[in-house]
Amino acid sequence: MMSSQLDQEINIKRVSRKRSRDALRSHFTPAKKRHSSSPTAKEHSSSLQEQDVGQTESGYMADAQHNEYCSDDEDLFGDYDSIACDTSFLAKLDDIELNFEQRSSTPVLNTAENECAKTRGQHSDIKQQLADDFFAELPSSQLAFQQENHKAAMKPRSMSSAKGEHRESDNSSRRVSLRDQLKKAMLGNALVQSPQVSRMKEQKQTVVDEEINVALQAMEPSSAIDLGPFFGLPSKVKDLIYRLRGIKDLYEWQQTCLTLDSVQQRRNLIYSLPTSGGKTLVAEILILRELLCRKNDALLILPYISLVQEKVRGLASFGLELDFLVEEYAGSKGRFPPVKRRVKKSLYIATIEKAHSLVNSLIETNRLDNLGLVVVDELHMLGDGSRGAILEMTLAKVLYVSKTTQIVGMSATLSNVGDLQKFLHADNYTNDFRPVQLKEYVKLQDCIYEIDPKEEECFKFSRQLNFKYSSSMQKMDPDHLIALVTEVIPAHSCLVFCPTKKNCENVAEMICKYLKKSFMQHKEKEKVNLLNELKSTGNGTICPVLKKTVPYGIAYHHSGLTSDERKLIEETYASGALCLLTCTSTLAAGINLPARRVILRSPYVATEFLKRSQYKQMTGRAGRAGIDTSGESILILQEKDKLLAKELVSRSMENCYSNLMHDSGRGILSLILSLIGLSITRTLGEIRDFVSCTLFSVQEKQICGEKSLWDIVSESLDILTKKGLVKSTAGEEETLLEVTKLGRATFKGSVDLTYCDVLYRDLSRGLEGLMLNSLLHLIYLVTPYEMVMQCKPDWMMYFRQFTQLTAAEQKMASAVGVPESFIAKKASGQSMKKAVDNVAVNRLYLSFVLFAMLKETNLWTVAEKFSLTRGFVQSLLSSSSAFCSCVLHFTEELEEFWAYKALLTELTKRLTYCVKIELIPLMEVAGVLEARAKQLYGAGYKTLAHLANADPNLLIKAIENLSKRQANQIVASAKMLLTEKAEALQEEVDELLTLPHDLPSL
């Protein structure tokens, strides 16, 4: 009853509104257009009104589908009816109706059926005549929708006519007013989502797609056509490189390399050139070809986290323009396995350790073939200790498992390329091109000698230093550094490499003492801004050395600085405000900071004499392409080092050897464990087959000595079995190998085999009395074992921190093996009779440092409190967040540790960022550190969405000392991260809605 009453009220309201609109139409339509003198027109108009009223009830159900968008007791168009007020349109409509009625003079039987047919015919003709104008005036966003509606309406009519079917007379006598039909059409138009891409953008994308198709044809082995607009890529890429990088043309060697047969036929490739020769651009072009043309994912492996973050920022703009994703895998960042994309392709940019975990996860999910290209920067890192072993394992697995993945390696320092070629089954391309000519010198006493290996003495006299030194000055600067640096600064830049971190600071201070005051006037404003920002990053504290040196345009650069400080110094040096950096050798292998002159303060790194590769990396920083016409390096020597220096500058590069046997064979043990865990190999014979495909096998004679490769594999397998990581079962023909639960957790968590059993023991003990009212216990469990011996406790500070703990926290400390009595005796200087676990003692001390960091989030305060360098504290924090991520994956594989999963997930995030909670979303953006995050938050950019939609020009005005390039990179990185998160959610939705392939059926 209620429903019937409601329907009746609705009908009355609709009739009332209809009459009001008709009256409004009559009022606004000119008399000459109404044809009021025509009785036919009047009758027709009257008929339309009567049928509209009759239609109301039947039309109610048809309109019901729009209830979600338009309430029944509310007119869709409000007080304004666009059709009623459009006099030109209504006049045209009335004229056409009248014309057709006058033309229809053929006598027919006046049956209801014929009358209905006549009416339908008239309406069909009327609508057909209006169709052209109607569709022509529609916007492109609605054209497709209306044409589909038109086709759908015509289809049933033609089918009905072909079959000779007739509608019932009561239905056929009804007709819908043209105005209501158009009104419904407009409603349909309103509901159609407008396309997000403009027609111009669609046209541009069409051009790009066509160029990619041309490039794909060119890549076919049998193709004889050119590579296409830009080395197999659409011309848009060339435009982007020019717009984003300022590179208009490629060097000749780059063009040659990109057109090599090995590149076109997708064979593995190793190419080597001197530093700053432009190797990276070639790699990026190859990556873009893989993503855009071959529609495969790609992996770029870089040695350091800072390089990964810099490359993520640099390539984010390319990803946004060319529609691919850039994903960061460094520290604790990265998903395993990565999100499976249905449409977009991904470029994974990873550190060596994260790349190994990524490849393992892809093998485990049978997705490695989706990885079309692996690019390794600094390929000589294969010879770098445990990291080299991890890199070798990664490449060996790719080679063994996937026959379609191409590997490209690049380096500036390669010697035994033949071994690497054999290992990677790769071609080799070498060139000695440098965009800026490098001249190498050595300094002995006050004379400069040019290095010429062709000379018998190797050193050829060039000039004598002409700088007046006082006796006190000579005593302070016996190496004549002031004379050497003032020849180039402040007009040009200079790097001074020092053997130790402390020496970097001392040299920077010493040089400032003897510089003229005029040096302080060079770009004074930029240097004042740098000091203010350094002070801001330290929450009001600034390094006293930097406070003295920065006004002169000088700063030091080493691992003792925080990430914020290093980034600020690097940016200011790149802008030219800082003209001199005193630095350690790590800068040579880090980010690209070139200089007009490079000075090597000593031929030693710490106490070890320089290697040829280290020397070439340092001197390779001399000469800035596009800025300087030449570059020069000066090695300062003492007479006692002259012979060693001659050998250094004339000998060839050191050979690169496999490190799988490094540190008692930890690499080969980890390799065999992961091979069995990933089911790559199941038997001893298969393991031997795999190991025979490694660099270790290629260099067996140089590395193994008397032992054979097979003996080493068998011994390693025995060790893994004794540690309880691998077990064997009898098979039909051969013994089968499989990992235990502990073994699977170890390789899935990338936990060092040296500590896997210790970690398991500590986590098990933790479950017995896990303290949850404080973070200290969890922090202790994720404090990295390898950093324990890098720090000696300050016992007085240790005791003071211990006494400030709660009773529950002190009880926890005793439970892990560090009682209060022990710390009290050590603080008072008493000798200890009872032995204690030094690892647990040192580890708990580092836990106190981390605990203080999470509570105070002020790195300067914590470093001062524990008498540690702020660089060490930050390194500890970074290592702890990475190890926490490893422990999380470790516990996920062991059922008894289920409780740790939720706890460690949150702790990983806290350790990764170690800032106030509101800043975490901003710090997720690559390269945005705490100081920048605070600035952005203070300027109103509080979320990732704020950053992604920010205007770079407004960002520059809101944030002090932010360049246009940096602002663009921040916005692009935020957009990329936001896109990646949205894509991941969409992929998850699609996965949930996908019909299971194994769905039971009858």
Description:
The chain is of the alpha/beta class. The protein folds into four domains: 235-430, Rossmann fold, CATH 3.40.50.300; 437-650, P-loop containing nucleotide triphosphate hydrolases (Rossmann fold), CATH 3.40.50.300; 663-739, Arc Repressor Mutant, subunit A, CATH 1.10.10.10; 755-988, no CATH class. Helices cover 55% and strands 9% of the residues. The chain contains 45 helices and 19 strands. It has an eight-stranded mixed sheet. Strands 3-4-2-5-6-1-7 form a seven-stranded parallel sheet, with helices on both faces. A two-stranded antiparallel ribbon has the order 15-16. A hairpin with a 6-residue loop joins strand 18 and strand 19 (736-739). Helix 1 runs antiparallel to helix 3, helix 16 runs parallel beside helix 26 and helix 26 (662-677) packs across helix 30 (709-722). The radius of gyration is 38 Å and the shape is globular. The two termini are 45 Å apart. Its EC number is 5.6.2.4.
Q: Tags for this entry?
A:
Rossmann fold; 45 helices; single chain; 55% helix; 1002 residues; DNA-binding; Arc Repressor Mutant, subunit A; WH_DNA-bd_sf; 19 strands; 7-stranded parallel sheet; alpha/beta; EC 5.6.2.4; DEAD/DEAH_box_helicase_dom; 8-stranded mixed sheet; 4 domains
Short structural summary:
This protein has 1002 residues and is α/β, with parallel strands linked by helices. It has 45 helices and 19 strands.
Q: How is the quaternary structure best described?
A: single chain
Number of domains: 4
Q: Helical region count?
A: 45
Strand-residue fraction? Answer: 5-15%
Mean pLDDT: 81
> Which structural class is indicated by helix and strand composition?
alpha/beta
Distance between the termini: 45 Å
Question: How many beta strands in the DSSP annotation?
Answer: 19
The rough form would be described as: globular
Using only C-alpha atoms, the radius of gyration works out to 38 Å
Are there runs of 5+ residues with pLDDT below 50, and where?
27-87, 104-120, 130-143, 155-176, 221-227
The strand line-up of the biggest sheet is 10-9-8-17-14-11-13-12
